[in-house]
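input
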Amino acid sequence: MKSLYTVRSARLLYSLPLILLAGCGSPEERAQGFYEKGMELIAKKDDLGARVQLHSALKFKADRVDVWRALVGVDSGTLRIRHRISDPPHPESGSPGR
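output
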């Protein structure tokens, strides 16, 4: 399993070129670039990376409904995974434990 430091470093290095390229253009263009990258990451099942990109898009253009919808989808998927991890099935009943 990768260490948290390695994962964060890789994510930063992965996002750095896009951040540098986002320095050019209007806020709309910047938001669109971050949105497109976020959607690519969603397709690759990288929810955390997608979340970062979508949040960056909202920093440039907070009124984009498509970005908000994508972010809600990522967050709800992440919450379902967290719930499954934090509350595993009870061995006897198959229902969540406690």
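quick obs: Helices lie at 4-21, 27-43, 47-60, 65-86.
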